[in-house]
Amino acid sequence: TAHALLEEGVRKGDTVSVYLYNCREFVNVYLACAKIGAIFNPINFRLKAKEVSYILQDASSKVVVFEKAVESTVAIIERDFPNTSFWSIENDKPSYASSYHEKVNAASSEKVNIEIDEMDYCSMLYTSGTTGHPKGVLHRHREMTEHSMICTYFLKYNRDSVGLVVAPLYHCGELNAGIIPRIQVGGKNVILHHFDTETVLHAIQE
Question: Does the entry feature the keyword DNA repair, yes or no (predicted)?
Answer without folding.
Answer: no
